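Subject: sequence -> structure tokens, single chain

Hey, anyone have a minute? Need the predicted structure for the following. Not urgent.
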Amino acid sequence: MDRKIEKKIWTWKRILLLLGGIVIISLIVYNFAFADNRATLRTQRDRLTIGTVTYGEFQDFIPVTGNIEPAQTFYLDAIEGGSIKRMVRQSGTHLRIGDTIVVLTNSSLQLDVMQRETQLYEQINNLRQTRLLLDQNDLNQQAQLAEIDYQINLFRPQYQRFQKLLSDSLISQREFEEVKEQYEYNLQRKNLTYRSYRNDSLARVIQLQQLKSSEERMLKSLEAVGNILDNLVVRAPISGQLAAPQLEIGQSIIPGQRLGQIDVLGQYLVRVGIDEIYLPRIVEGLEGKFTLSGIEYRLNISKIYPTIEAGRFEVDMIFPGEIPPGIRRGQTVRIRLELGNSEQRLLLPVGGFYKDTGGNWVFVLAEGSDTKAEKRNIRIGRRNPDYYEILDGLDKGDRVIISSYENFGRNEVLILQ
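Reply:
Had a minute. Here:
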């Protein structure tokens, strides 16, 4: 007799399939919800440089290079052109004020000076002749007045006598009128001559003042013309050391040509070139330091040149205290130029990562692990040649990969082997 066989629902096969499905679904859910899906790269640990974040003093400075220059320099330029006749002092010679350095010769200039002197002497003589004529005219007018006074003195008593004689009817009217006319004529003549003399005297005073001023100017011009030939002799305007190019006897020199310079000894400054990105932070008075022969010396910025060339500008730095003994013009020194006061900050050693990330993120080793590093966003402030100032994203003791990130691509996790 046939017996109905009941079909089992939960067979071992179904149970195994169900368990396998649950495991697969769980793995999928875990991968989506909990697993680390970030891009990962394996790299060699010995090729990396790791720096530790510390808390310490941040010194805001930049390294710059400066050249020693004399604090005072006087340039020697040829005022007049000519040919070198004699070299009296050579480059490197120590000079005193007035020492002759170079003697020039210029025949054309000498002839021109002689001609100009002759013309000035002629003009001066003409002025003096004019002044002499004015004086003679003055004397002539005075003589005329004296002659008129003489005539008046002669006719006055006669006129007075004739008045009395006429009143006594001892002379005729005609005789009296002749004497009267002579007397009154001389009075009128004196009045006109005096008015003319007075006007001429006022004009003569102005003319004499003008002649005197003109003569003084011509005498100064004559002196200046005579000094032109002195310009053919180049002398030291100050005491110091001569620095001059190679000059040869007979060499032609044009007006304005630089013949050398005189450096004042014992007074020096440092001419420093700085990258233009630091221009907003550079002000007069900033301090710098450098070490020479084991001794540290201080400098202060005294002058900032506004001109920027090839991305750099220059400043002058002076010694507020002791000047290093034995320094020479053109000597190079390495300076730590301080841009601000020292402060306590989180510090990260400088490394090649900055050019790849711009300081926006770094790889930080996971806490307690030497084999895994994760990408982390950070914020960097100031920097000096040794450290970056960390503003956000890192804590003291964090270990950071500071070498170049050029080969890491867009990976967010590094496995160090």
